[in-house]
Amino acid sequence: MTEMLEKLRFYQKAKELYSASWKDSEILMKDFRGKEVAKQLTRSVGSICANIEEGCGRGFGKEYPQFLRIARGSAKESLGWYERSKFLISIDTVSQRIKTLEEIIGALSKSIYTLENRKRK
What we know:
It is a single chain. The protein is mostly helical and 121 residues long. The chain is built from five helices and no strands. α2 packs antiparallel against α3, α2 runs antiparallel to α5 and α3 runs antiparallel to α4. The two termini are 26 Å apart.
């Protein structure tokens, strides 16, 4: 499974984002308003990787696209949390994270579409 995951570019980006979110959370945790944002952001960013991993772990049947949908939902949630964190994290960092999330969302959407079209054929 690990070998398969390592080939998925959107999974690699999600892991990189999770690592970067640690630094962002450190900044958020310094402000009482940012603490809740940091908690939600940590959960949603972590959920992207976790759902991709679980989907791959279950094989490539009908459950896989569903787990990718959940990962995409977590990526959209993370995007929202990053937008709300702009008061504490630099605009450049927020913009960079949002760009990465948009790339992940696009790749997940394309994979879901491809997988579901294969089933129809």
